[in-house]
Write a structure and sequence with these properties.
This protein is α+β, with helices and mostly antiparallel strands.
């Protein structure tokens, strides 16, 4: 998209911080809410007859249904359910990535900017390091990535959209911090075994105990970060911007469009298992604003497989 289009959206967004709460499988409740509003689903019985029926086997929903004892109950009652489980509190922020001129370094599917929706951790995670005199360890070697300056960015989603077609696309979902901390944690464990009290990582010495203690804070986010990020991206595109049709790269097609070499290819599960968990429909055409792009057409001609995921509700 053009800079002016992104600037207009940013200017319309709330200036105060936007909190986003997530618990395991919350995406199911969110998407069921979309189906109730836009997909004609009214009761639990309607869900049972649909391709979304497997969601009712999720523990938080299964327990709730067992207490209700019937399937003619209104879907709205489930959507007001708030399970008794660990709730993660994140802060969303919108940034940008790319350039209006075509540059394959940015790994965008077309020339132009991507909006970047950051899923940021609470400031308590920052304090875990800053209170010990440690600098912005979460940004060591990552200054070129679209992460927050003030908070630890757990993950981000790169987004593109077109107002004329009414379609949006999730370009990428990524977490540098979880991968980097895993590397840092392994180095700290090794240093501890060697009776060292500091560990060298990238461009500075870090206290071993600070690094190891942080494992307690971050491990609760490791299993749900990708579903939390995708839920936040859908919420932003659908609820904040009003898009009803959202596309998501399938793994092979996305790699081709973004001109990724072997060193930069992402985990296949993020572009197969994750959208299928969210019941995206697999389709053979992407958003119209990409399918009509001359550079995209050239890439498509060279591909044996051209697949996308699509959510429309």
């Amino acid at each position: 998209m053009k800079q002016s289009q992104l600037d207009e959206v940013i200017a319309c967004l709330p200036k105060e911080k936007t909190c986003f709460y997530y618990h395991r499988d919350r995406y199911v409740l969110y998407l069921l809410g979309r189906l109730q509003q836009h997909g004609g689903m009214r009761t639990i019985r309607d869900i049972k007859k649909s391709r979304y029926a497997h969601w009712l086997n999720k523990p938080l929903i299964k327990d709730w249904l067992a207490r209700c004892g019937r399937d003619d109950i209104a879907l709205a009652e489930l959507l007001h359910y708030w399970p008794q489980q660990s709730i993660h509190n994140y802060v969303l922020n919108l940034a940008q990535w790319g350039d209006e001129q075509w540059n394959p370094w940015y790994q965008t599917s077309r020339a132009g900017l991507n909006a970047v929706l950051q899923l940021n951790l609470p400031l308590s995670h920052v304090k875990s390091f800053l209170d010990q005199g440690v600098g912005q360890v979460w940004r060591y070697g990552r200054w070129h990535h679209p992460m927050s300056e003030q908070r630890i960015t757990l993950a981000w989603a790169r987004l593109d959209w077109d107002w004329q077609t009414g379609q949006a696309m999730i370009e990428e979902i990524q977490s540098d911090w979880l991968r980097d901390y895993a590397e840092l944690h392994a180095a700290a464990k090794q240093a501890k075994q060697e009776h060292e009290d500091r560990v060298w990582w990238r461009n500075g010495w870090l206290p071993v105990d600070v690094v190891l203690d942080y494992q307690t804070d971050i491990q609760q986010h490791q299993k749900t970060w990708s579903e939390a990020m995708l839920t936040a991206a859908l919420w932003f595109l659908q609820e904040e911007l009003g898009f009803k049709e959202v596309f998501y790269h399938a793994w092979q097609t996305g790699n081709a469009l973004k001109r990724l070499d072997d060193e930069h290819i992402p985990p296949r599960s993020l572009y197969s298992d994750l959208p299928e968990k969210f019941a995206f429909e697999r389709v053979n055409k992407g958003p119209l604003f990409l399918e009509s792009d001359p550079k995209v057409k050239k890439v498509k001609k060279r591909q044996d497989i051209w697949q996308w995921y699509r959510w429309a509700a």
